[in-house]
Amino acid sequence: MRKKRSRLHIGWRTLKTTAAIILSMIIVDFFGATSSKLIFAMLGAMAAVQPTFKESLEACIAQIVGVVFGGVVGVLLLALDLPSLVATGIGIILVITLYNALRITYSPVNASFIVVLLCTTPDIQPITYALGRIWDTAIGLGVGMLINTLIFPYDNSRMIHDTVESLEKEVIHFLEALFDGDDVVPDTDKAMRKIGDMQRQLKIFENQRLVRHLKQQNLKIEEFRICEGKARELLARMVVLSEVKKPGRLNEKNRARLRELGADIRDQRVLDNPTDLDVVTNYHVTQILRLRRDLMAALGREERINSGETEAVEAEE
Known about the structure:
- This protein is mainly α.
- It folds into two domains: 12-150; 157-316.
- The chain has twelve helices and no strands.
- Helix 1 runs antiparallel to helix 2 (35-48), helix 3 (53-79) runs parallel beside helix 5 (109-120) and helix 8 packs antiparallel against helix 9.
- The protein starts with 11 loop residues before the first helix and ends with a helix.
- Residues 1-5 and 301-317 have low confidence and may be disordered.
């Protein structure tokens, strides 16, 4: 068996993070850089470059809260003139306790880091140092946010498109397997997973704010929400058909539509004297084909929907 080789992929987020770090360090260096200044600018820039605007904003708030908390606690402890390790231990306990008491959900790591630096660095000017770290972090966060928001902002709309198209193909495969002539009824697990993937990607897309294309993004969100609703209806119809022991016989209209879509229907049973099962089966197949058409239309793909199929479905409805 041939093993797949892992490809070295450098994505846009990696490049944006690097650009944010370098630019932040250049700005900090303009004001007189030290190693700690550059480190805090770097941490701020890295934190701000997240997949979505919401995550970037939360990362910025977490960094600012951490630096402020750590700075205030560290300054207070230095004023008590305690041994460095004792002050450090008390400071970390105090930071974590305050985070829990105030129900701050962000990690206290950054605040604890500031406390350790303040309490273990001799001859430090605590207030100046704390204010400087807030300033350096703010530079990194500001640069990171600007680059992440304005320069190639993360846009996963193509992934949502691909998931919807993949779901549409899964519908055809499901119907092929349903009417392949054997007694095995296909399940809907794949379709369910694809809808779950679509929901996760849609949540990411909604949490992003494409500042330069906000109106276009809102239109896409509306479009994808319609797709999600159609996909859920589609899954419900498929589940109904997957729960029968054996599907009924296809009528000629549905057979012709599936053939036009390229489906390989091997069930050649002739529909004479339709039973209740035949009627129910053809009803759900008709609805699945309609929802499949509506799903692709909502995605802006009306040109790929066969006009004859559309007219036939609408006539039957």
